[in-house]
Amino acid sequence: MSNKVIYGLYDDDDILLKGVKELRAAGVRIREVYTPFPVHGLDKAMGLKDTRIAIAAFMYGLLGLSFAGLMMYFMMVVDWPQNIGGKPSFTFYENLPAFVPIMFECTVLFAGHLMVITFLARNGMYPGREAMNPDPRTTDHLFMVELPSGDNRDEVISILEKTGAVEINEKELTDEH
Amino acid sequence: MHYESPIRQPLITGDKTYKQITEDVARPIEGKANRTWWILFGLSLVMFLWGIGSLAYTVGEGIGTWGLNRTVGWAWDITNFVWWVGIGHAGTLISAILLLFRQKWRMSINRSAEAMTIFAVFQAGLFPVFHMGRVWLAYFVLPIPNTFGSLWVNFNSPLLWDVFAISTYLSISLVFWYMGLIPDFAMIRDRAIKPMTKKVYSILSFGWGGKAKHWQRFEEISLVLAGLATPLVLSVHTIVSMDFATSVIPGWHTTIFPPYFVAGAIFSGFAMVQTLLIIMRKVVNLENYITIEHIEMMNIVIMLTGSIVGIAYITELFIAWYSGVEYEQYAFLNRATGPYWWAYWSMMTCNVISPQLMWFKKLRTSIVFTFILSIIVNIGMWFERFVIIVTSLHRDYLPSSWTMFSPTFVDIGIFIGTIGFFFVLFLLYSRTFPVIAQAELKTILKSSGSQYKGGKHE
């Protein structure tokens, strides 16, 4: 695989979307698209799979729910049962109504935080990481497609020009991207 | 694809482009602070320092320095706690519930509203912690075995639910806010010229580059966080209200408390958002993004929640009479006609009567009127908590214990201090953070921007 890439820059999300569709139709593999904001339909146009992060969040929520339930069962019923206000703590079942608020809070706490940690880990994001976008203008107003440069280099460039790219750059990648 | 009904008012005026949105959002961060900012900051800092002094005095001397007595054991501290938590409800409501309802007008205001939420919850947290008296033992509320044995915290107590609710709310709001900030920090990073600025925003932006897959995940986590935060925000004030409702004090022991507190929280939160944003849009020139349309929408929410609060007040009175319990009846009669009648009627005027003025379109689209009303609402909501807490307590079961509450200069100092702290944080935020979720806002430019509406384009 060649590690030369072509960067095509667009200045409009609709033109970008059209460009991406045409590139895909011509059989060009799109390495990456950098956009300043989420462009709706771009993931479909690029052929990206749906994210499964919401399923992960659901699992984390279940984990939080069970954690809270077990924690309170252990502390209130098993380890040191007390008779508070004439309402003794003998069984999980009898104490359950009082446990509901914290079970809910822990569900949210676990689901939210673990999902965000998963998000950062999967994206490879951490404080101080070098910017992932090769061109700083892509967080402002430009949309950039990153394409592999191979035998079809001229064809790719002509599609980019035809679909309205405002700027086309070529670059040799030195490190793993 | 970018269609929106022409009946809707544009949410971004001034014919902006993507580039201009970036510049308008980055300007307050890249420019220098003006005099108004420094004056406000200095004033807030003085208030904050005064609060620190009062807190230090409280810690050194004990909570005997407050105006509390044996009958009224909860007064300004818990009033202020509930008031601040309530204010801290609008941010998550705007960003989570309005996201689920696909309300696009949330986009220019959600960032600041969430910042306000987080700063308000900080203030709220101070009160119960310092009310413990021995602050250094505050870790006793955590579910860890007591150092002197193996006694655990009491999970049947609403006060402990509150610990979990407030801390979950604060941390989830913080994460929700921060995730939204990452793409905007990346924007500031990529524009930065000074190496120091670049370094700082580079650390803050976690290397964000706007890759397609990352945006896909970003949108998914925003939606899931909104879905989680929506019941969370409702649960927080529900649990706060249970601090009162699960007790047996006449005037507190009512089942209407949870929905009534939640409505009141949204009511006061939106009022505080109005107070802050009306100043901010002027100071940092964001009138094209925070438009009269936004202000009107928020006023409608204030009117709606104010009416719910009004109905709750009247329902409480009715139920007190209908219950046939003479203690309940007395508690409410005493609120309206007893020694604290002035607090009760201030609350009624500010919270029930004043929001009804929002029915007039002229008034709810007037910036001056909105600003004044937002302050009135916050005064009213403070009185609401004061009325609930102090008037229910000051008439004890034994008439020999009947008493009145008056705050000391320490009570007042701490309250003023939290207001100062809140504004210090908000002013610093407005100079260093992108105050508008610009990445998100750019997605609606083509559907709600003024130059794209009314068939001028396409």
Description:
With 177 residues, chain A is an alpha+beta fold. Chain A has five helices and six strands, in the order E-H-E-H-H-E-E-H-E-H-E. Chain A has helices at 13-25, 42-46, 53-79, 92-123, 153-162, and strands at 4-10, 32-34, 83-84, 87-88, 143-148, 167-172. In chain A, the strands form two sheets. Chain A has a four-stranded antiparallel sheet. The longest helix of chain A is centred in the middle third of the chain and has 32 residues, at 92-123. Chain A is rod-shaped. The mean pLDDT of chain A is 86. Chain B is 68% helix and 0% strand. Chain B has helices at residues 18-30, 35-61, 76-87, 90-100, 110-131, 158-191, 195-204, 212-245, 257-283, 292-323, 326-337, 341-353, 361-364, 367-394, 409-432, 438-442, 445-448. The radius of gyration of chain B is 23 Å and the shape is globular. Chains A and B meet through strand 2, helix 2, helix 3 and helix 4 of A and helix 1, helix 6, helix 7, helix 8 and helix 16 of B.
Q: Based on DSSP secondary structure assignment, what is the total number of beta strands of chain B?
A: 0
Major sheet of chain A: size, sense and barrel closure? 4 strands, antiparallel
Q: What sequence of helices (H) and strands (E) makes up the elements of chain A?
A: EHEHHEEHEHE
Q: Helices and strands of chain B, in N-to-C order?
A: HHHHHHHHHHHHHHHHH
Q: Total helix count of chain A?
A: 5
Structural class assignment of chain B: mainly alpha
Cα Rg of chain A: 26 Å
Strand content of chain B: under 5%
Mean pLDDT across the residues of chain B is: 88
**Spatial strand sequence of the major β-sheet of chain A:** 2-5-1-6
Uncertain residue segments of chain A: none
Radius of gyration of chain B, in angstroms, nearest whole number: 23 Å
Mean pLDDT of chain A: 86
| Portion in beta strands of chain A | 5-15%
User: Main beta sheet of chain B: strand number and arrangement?
Assistant: none
Intertermini distance of chain A: 13 Å
